[in-house]
Amino acid sequence: MRYTDEFLQEVKDRNDIIDVVESYIPLKKKGNNYWGLCPFHNEKTASFSVYPPKQIFHCFGCGEGGDVISFVMKYENASYPEAVRILAERAGMQIVEKEESGEDRLRRSRSDVIKQINSDAAAFYVKSLRSVHGEKGLKYFKERGLTDETITHFGLGYSGTGGKEVVEYLKEKGYSDEMIIAAGIATNSEKYGMSSPFFSRVMFPIINIDKKVIGFGGRVLGSGEPKYLNTKETEVFDKRRNLYGYNFAKRSRKKYYILCEGYMDVISMHQAGFDSAIASLGTAFTEEQAAMIKRDRVDVYLAYDMDEAGEKAALRAVKILASVGITPRRISVSPCKDPDEFISKNGVEQFEKRLEDAENGFLYIEDRVRDGYDLSDPEERYKCQKEIVENLWMFAADEVKMSSYAASISERYGYPKSEISKLLEETKPREYKKAEERPAYGAYTPPKKSSGKEKSTYSSAESALLTWLTDEPEIFSVVRKYLNADDFSPGSCREVATKTFELLEEGKFSVDTLFSELEDEEVRSEATGLLQNSAPEIDTAEKRMEMLKDLIVNVMERKCEMLSSSDDQEKDLKIFNMRLEIDKLKSGKLNLSEEES
User: Fold this and answer.
1) Mind listing the pLDDT tens digit for each residue in 328-355?
2) How big is the CA angle at 391 (ends 387 and 394), to the nearest 5 degrees?
3) Which stretches does DSSP call E strand in 356-453?
4) N or C: which end of the chain has fewer CB within 10 A?
């Protein structure tokens, strides 16, 4: 699928990067940038920056960067066309495509092939369920109370008794061993050859928001282990960034999500009319899944099992959802074990009443904390109070909410406000202490380098000057009198400077054009960090010119340092001439024409 250039530009114009990124993660404005915790690697202090003037993002921790389309691609694990479609739908735009040529079809990405393999495998499992060999799978679903309509709606299937059938079916379709393995459908071993890990299992296809099958969950029939098996992570399947039932629940008219523990819970809830039920994919609930939920709903109900494992899962989910600004409510289905059993025994109306009576998630946590202490013992009572107050830090990103809940626990448990304030200071998490000690991100702060592969180095003055130049191309007429692209540090900095100078000379400069002409993906990612070092607001033209002069001088002085350690045979003469220019600049003003002045 290809899109016209005009359509792509309109998609970007109608999806401000701040609005889009904030629909996934919380951001806080500091200076000219917006900062948050990076969604692409684990961190405790914000190194993920979004720069509105250029509509770009960059993480100074892991090095990821790009524009609004590449952010959606990385976050949603989507192809370029899928990311464009997501943003177009978000803006209420009609999709405008170019006609796809035969050459374009040949160039389709591996991810498209993998999704098609999954789709064909899903069709095989559905057919198998309705065959003689799938009778025990169909019997299992029927015994769980599922109707034929529900089984069809969710695309439920059966894997077969061996691990070879689906592999042979896919090979007949023309897929290579390599791609079948890449899709997670099969593995290859000396002992068994090509075979699927899914056998003697009922199958649950996992479908993304674009209605594409990206993986499977399989429940064993009988005594085999593990009880549930998921597709291993592939190029299209990331368990942390997907939810079971999300493709249906997202389109529900209900204003809330019901978060369940497993596949069957979700399916049973949908069959009962609660079509906004979702579940994590065989793993604990994650921050990425919480961010997905936040994009669509602010009301979430937890319908986890009532056993010890379900209680722990609910406590964890409350804290994770609080980190993205959602305070969920905990549904009690006691004395039943899970929602499925409760609805079967008591009916839909009684479950709706349990929804209405669901307990505030934060207060639910605090009540569980109190249950764990002997409040008749002064030491136990103190530890309990400290843990309850410490939990307030889950609202650290929202001071108003934090204050509101502090007042609530003061009233609920009789804790004096002065004690709560003292305990809050005592229990402050380390990352918040560090954040207060860390200087604010501002003008000309040298970018933090990735801890991974070594990146090219450049000065904060080079970063600031290039940022200013690409923000305000009109200053190029001054800059080019003193500097050329070769005066910048080698590596990504010089590549960006070279392409920027070329485009400005030709009168063709735009940020989108610059990034499209930087062919190396790593250079593009580094460029998003390089071009975020913006200057503070300056109130007079004279001060602006002084700052511009200082930056040019700094870049020239760095060039002298680089020359002095180089093998250039003419370095002494070049340094001498540049020093003359530096001395002239320091003692005077920038050389402006009358028009420029």
Assistant:
1) 999 999 999 998 899 989 999 999 999 9
2) 160
3) 359-360
4) C
Domain of 390? 372-437
Alpha helices in 221-304 (DSSP H): 246-249, 263-271, 287-296
Give the chain's mean pLDDT. 87
Q: Which of 346, 365, 384 is the last residue of a domain?
A: 365
CA–CA–CA angle 301, 303, 304 (5° rounding): 130
Helix locations, 183-262, DSSP H: 246-249
User: How high is the pLDDT of residue 435?
Assistant: 46
Amino acid at 9: Q
HSE at residue 31, side-chain half, CA atoms within 13 A, is: 17
The one-letter code for the residue type at 4 is: T
Domain boundary among 103, 118, 144: 103
Tell me if the pTM is above 0.70. no
Amino acid at 542: E
- Beta strand pairing call for 97-98 and 329-330: unpaired
- Rounded Cα distance, 304 and 42, in Å: 26
* Both structure tokens of 504: 């400005």
Domain with residue 144: its CATH number is 3.90.980.10
Residue 53: cis peptide before it, omega within 30 degrees of 0: no
Q: What is the rounded distance in angstroms from the CA atom of residue 486 to the CA atom of residue 189?
A: 54
204 is a domain residue: yes
Check residue 176 and give its pLDDT: 95
Among 127-136, 217-226, 294-303, name the most confident range: 127-136
Instruction: Inform me whether the pLDDT recorded for 283 exceeds 80.
Output: no
Question: Residue 150: in which H helix or E strand, if any?
Answer: helix 148-153
Structure tokens at 534: 């913006």
From residue 233, alpha-carbon distances to 31, 227, 238 in Å are 39, 18, 5
State the total domains in the chain. 5
CA distance 554 to 581: 12
